[in-house]
Structures are given as C-alpha cells and as structure tokens.
Design a protein that fits this description.
The protein has 134 residues and is mostly beta strands. 10% of the residues lie in helices and 38% in strands. The chain has one helix and five strands. It has one helix at residues 3-15; strands spanning 23-32, 39-48, 71-83, 94-106, 129-133. Strands 1-2-5 form a three-stranded mixed β-sheet, with no helix packed on it. It has a two-stranded antiparallel sheet with strand order 3-4. A hairpin with a 6-residue loop joins strand 1 (23-32) and strand 2 (39-48).
Length: 134
C-alpha cells in the first residue's frame, strides 16, 4: 500500500465526520396572504445536506434517545422581515422568515425546524408573483 493512499485513508477517517456536507444552501420561499394582491418570492438560505448517521442493529436493546439520527439543522440563524405588496390598510403586511447563517449536524429541534420531509409540494404561488432579493 502506498504511503499517499495510507495517509489519505487516515485523514479521511479522522476528519470525515467533521467534513460533512451540511451547509447553508440557497432556497426560494413563496409567501402570500389571502387578503393581499401579490405573492412574494424570497431568496434566502436554509440548512441542507448530508450528515453521518448510524443505524443500530440492536434497536430493541437501546434507549429511545440513543436511536435518534443526526440531521442537517441550524447552528446560527437570523430573521429578516419583508413587506408583502398589495395588502389593504387593515392587514399587517409584514412577514418574518429565518435565514441560515451556519449549519450543523445534530438532533432536529421542532421549536424552529420542520423535522418531517413531506412529499407534497406546497412552496408555490397562487397569486401574481413579485421577487424579493435580500
């Protein structure tokens, strides 16, 4: 075995877990209010990517907390607020959304993340669209 291959293998084993592919990723969300005339397409960032997980063969022998899998989730977020155009005066036209600053592999926190991947596509507009670049 060549020294380069052996060194590469050792480096990969040592740092492979920390070098996961979980990172902020560009994403477009669509926001609309029933009373407003327009749908707003917002460019933002979300956490997306691959995290190392382990599937235990002895699931019946372990505590439930030991079975949770790591997901790509927020490490640091900030909130932006936008104005939805075309709203009547009696409607609050503001919408706040999270922007991923940094991400990590960890347990999914339902306080600020949707931990279930649904196959139904709900990110679309039913009204005329305006683009919001933040």
């Amino acid at each position: 075995m060549s020294p380069f291959f052996l060194l590469s293998l050792l480096f990969g084993l040592a740092f492979g877990r920390t070098a996961s592919l979980c990172a902020p990723s560009e994403y477009v969300i669509h926001v609309e209010k029933r009373e407003c005339a327009y749908c707003l397409a917002i460019n933002t960032t979300i956490c997306a990517g691959f995290c190392m997980t382990r599937d235990s063969n002895g699931k019946k022998l372990l505590l439930r907390s030991a079975l949770s899998q790591n997901v790509c989730t927020y490490k640091e977020i900030l909130y932006q607020t936008v104005l939805i155009p075309g709203c009547p005066l009696h409607i609050i036209p503001y919408y706040s959304y999270p922007v991923a600053v940094s991400c990590k592999c960890g347990k999914c926190n339902t306080d600020y993340s949707d931990c279930v991947h649904e196959k139904v596509r709900t990110n679309y507009c039913t009204k005329p669209q305006k683009l919001c670049n933040m």
